Amino acid sequence: MSERKPIDCWLTDMDGVLVHEGQPVPGAEDFLGRLKRAGKPFLVLTNNSIYTPRDLHVRLRAAGLDVPVESIYTSALATAQFLDDQRPHGSAYVLGEAGLTTALHEIGYILTDIDPDYVVLGETRTYSFTAITRAIRLINNGARFIATNPDPIGPSTEGALPATGSVAALITKATGVEPYFVGKPNPLMMRNALNTVGGHSESTAMIGDRMDTDVVSGMEAGLYTILVLTGVTTEKEIARYPFRPQRVAESIAELVDMVDLPDLAEG
Question: What is the pLDDT of residues 193-217, one digit of tens each?
């Protein structure tokens, strides 16, 4: 096996890696600061489609983490990019929040419940029985079914919440139609992320806290994969999977020294 190239580009999940229940993970600020001092391109990836990148920038800043808007890439942006490639200037019935509706508006999509090209399901904290019923009927009438991500649950301070994957399963049960999931672990999102940040798979690392989304998507995209144990997947659970990350770290604090700083003595 050939020796892997040095890591010049970094992709990292957000929840469970940089923040946990709204609080910064110890070492996250140091890691981001090291990336900036080293001039390394990086992108924060999240399957959360509720917020726009600007919203997330503000939320991260409130947690003490300075992540530029252009360094945040969500499943909502990936979904919008996918739909723009597939059917430019189409129409969609959306179950989701501002992160998703804004992304679709920005690519020129019409949001409507009248004979849409797609039903697009994203994350929301206010799923409506009426809206879900409307989505089911539109899919039964021929609308294509897209979902931002397959995550069945999401975190909260009170415990697990039903997320996009769970509501998608409900709609599938009612219609017999499986959605196309755009977000992680779909390699499509990873390729879009690499293109966005200008990285190459052979010299890019993916940091995540979930084996079933972050690590598998990084592996399938040919990236160097790192699992941190500050989120969903525990150390005992790693052995359940038929694949492994190339590194396991207690937290992102252990990874700061992996980011090479430029040689200040040069020049």
Answer: 999 999 999 999 999 999 999 999 9
> pTM for the full model?
0.91
Handedness of CA 160, 219, 60, 183 (dihedral sign): negative
Phi and psi at residue 44, to the nearest 5°: -95, 120
Cβ atoms of 45 and 73 closer than 8 Å: yes
> At CB < 8 A and 24+ separation, what contacts does 124-132 make?
124/50, 124/95, 124/96, 124/97, 125/50, 125/97, 125/161, 127/95, 127/162, 127/167, 128/95, 131/95, 132/95, 132/167, 132/170, 132/171
| pLDDT tens string 25-66 | 999 999 999 999 999 999 999 999 999 999 999 999 999 999
Residue 42 lies in a domain: yes
C-alpha distances out from residue 56 to 16, 33, 74, 177, 210, Å: 15, 18, 10, 32, 20
- Catalytically active residues are 13, 15
Question: Residue 262: what pLDDT?
Answer: 67
Q: How far apart are CA 144 and CA 136, in angstroms?
A: 11
Same domain, 191 and 230: yes
Determine the structural domain holding residue 254 and report its residue range.
9-47+184-258
* Domain endpoint, select from 181, 206, 226: 181
Which CA distances in Å does 101 have to 12, 121, 123? 24, 11, 11
Cα 239 to Cα 48, 184, 258, distances in angstroms: 27, 21, 25
Q: What is the mean pLDDT of the chain?
A: 93
pLDDT at 155 over 80: no
